[in-house]
Amino acid sequence: MADIGKYNTLSVVAVTEKGAYLSAGELGEVLLPNRFIPENCKVDDKLTVFIYVDSAERIIATTEKPFGQVDEFVSLKVIQLNKMGAFLDWGLPKDLLVPFNQQHTPMEEGKYYLVRIFLDTTTDRIAASSKLDKYLDIWPASYQKWDKVKLMIGGKTDLGFKAIINDKHWGLLFDNEIFQPLRVGKVVDGFIKNIREDGRIDLSLSRSGEGKVNDFADKLLAHIAENDGFSPLHDKSSPELIQRILGVSKKTFKATVGNLLKKDKITIEKSGLRLK
């Protein structure tokens, strides 16, 4: 069965003047308009398409790629407000609606919001919600300390940034441990730093101690290689410059340089680092 609001690989059953009709199981035959048909398309070809309900209330297929699909979290911009709610640009001709009753706080035109895309199964309409808590796991997390996880950056707080962990739980990144630019909706790798007694989760963008050095070593080597085998960064470089270029603290940078020296992978010159 094909799913509305998601990518599907479907077989072509007919090619007409209007476009190609695709077999979509219980949804019947779904039209892929002419402008999206690949060259030399023929019956029995398999095409990967996105299925949605267009402005004429038809279930239709497209090869255009929206910024997100049903059951995903994504950061989208509000481009219009009206009596129905807020409309978000999600990369398709028909904008994505966030009804008023699905807005965590009243949305404003021109601003970006982290939302969850969902399918209203009674109407087959795709919509979005900024009431994210109801889509996250209510059960306590079972992560172990320093587990590697996927983070989607959420809202800014007085302490740092909230982030969604593996699409399941909220966690917190503290300002004094962030050494790279973050924005709502950005996806980054992170680590479980601590799970408190109340169930709240502290996060880190890098592991501690030796683990942090090992994680950063490949990035530093790649940085040097990309600059023709030489980097002008050294122990006298400012913490701000190191953070801006490499996204880590000067402490981590110096520890990693020492580690790579021991492994005979770099040499230190007066004006920087050279790859061996």
Shape: globular
Sheet-strand content, in percent, reads 35-45%
Task: Give the SSE order as H and E letters.
Answer: EEEEEEEEEEEEEEEHEHHEE
Radius of gyration: 24 Å
Mean pLDDT, all residues: 90
Distance from first to last alpha carbon: 55 Å
Main sheet: strand order: 3-2-1-4-5
User: What's the CATH H-level homologous superfamily of the largest domain?
Assistant: Winged helix-like DNA-binding domain superfamily/Winged helix DNA-binding domain
Q: State the domain count.
A: 4
Tally of separate helices: 3
The major sheet is characterized as: 5 strands, antiparallel
The level 1 CATH classification of the largest domain is Mainly Alpha
In CATH terms, what is the architecture of the largest domain? Answer: Orthogonal Bundle
Helix amount: 10-25%
Category by helix and strand content: mainly beta
CATH topology of the largest domain: the name is Arc Repressor Mutant, subunit A
Number of strands: 18
Which runs of at least 5 residues are low in confidence (pLDDT < 50)?
Answer: none
